[in-house]
From TrEMBL:
InterPro entries: WH_DNA-bd_sf
Organism of this sequence: Saccharothrix violaceirubra
Origin: domain of life: Bacteria
This protein's name: Class 3 adenylate cyclase
Length: 222
């Protein structure tokens, strides 16, 4: 496999925005759709057909297909539908090199990335509560924004406020993310007393284990 083939698949999610915004669908759903596509790699898919095959709702499949097309991983054609339809149906076929890269390299790495997210989100909570999105209190996007800033900062120690300002998130959200990362051993926390403050300041820094785990996630996910 060439470098271009192995590097292509991670840069799909969010491609329709030029990767300037979150993809609006999870890694898990991306994997499910890609598994359906690569199970029949010669097939040309409509959004409706792919939604039925994958079990993922049409609105999400439409976003995945738009990202595949925008990133150059799928060819788009059009089929004139019924006279009652104002617009032709878009058809998508994933390029062979993308199928090869997905099956041979990226599928397993995306699965590991998804397992990492599941392990972190809600780790500070009791098992029952950790299954509730409301109890977790933040999104995958927020987690990725915080970890991205931590990775970019090298060995720097951060307060929740500094991380929030850099990541564009409110401080309370960042605190929840950091507590979960501490719970799984991906962050250390250092507490400093300050005579001018009633509450000690907490400084967070990635551990070596956290850095290794999340570096692979970001390499895989673009």
């Amino acid at each position: 496999m060439t470098t271009s083939e192995s590097a292509s698949t991670p840069w799909v999610r969010g491609a329709r925005f030029g990767w300037s915004k979150p993809a609006d669908y999870s890694v898990r759903l991306f994997v499910v759709v890609m598994d359906a596509v690569t199970a029949d790699p010669e097939r040309v898919w409509s959004v409706s057909e792919l939604a039925r095959e994958s079990g993922v709702k049409r609105s999400t499949v439409r976003l995945v297909c738009a990202d595949l097309a925008a990133s150059g991983q799928a060819r788009v054609s059009h089929k004139q539908g019924e006279p009652s339809r104002l617009l032709p149906t878009k058809l998508y076929r994933v390029r062979p090199e993308c199928v090869t890269a997905w099956v041979s390299v990226w599928r397993d790495r995306f699965y590991r990335a998804d397992a990492l997210t599941d392990a972190v989100m809600g780790a500070r909570l009791a098992d029952g509560l950790a299954r509730s999105t409301d109890a977790i209190g933040y999104s995958v996007y927020s987690l990725e924004q915080v970890v991205g800033r931590l990775l970019a900062g090298g060995r720097r120690s951060w307060t929740a406020r500094d991380l929030g300002d850099t990541a564009g998130l409110n401080c309370s959200t960042v605190r929840l993310v950091c507590r979960d990362l501490v719970a799984v051993g991906h962050l250390t926390v250092r507490i400093e007393e300050d005579a001018t403050r009633s509450i000690p300041r907490k400084f967070f820094r990635l551990t070596d284990a956290g850095r290794a785990a999340w570096r692979e996630r970001f390499e895989n996910n673009g």
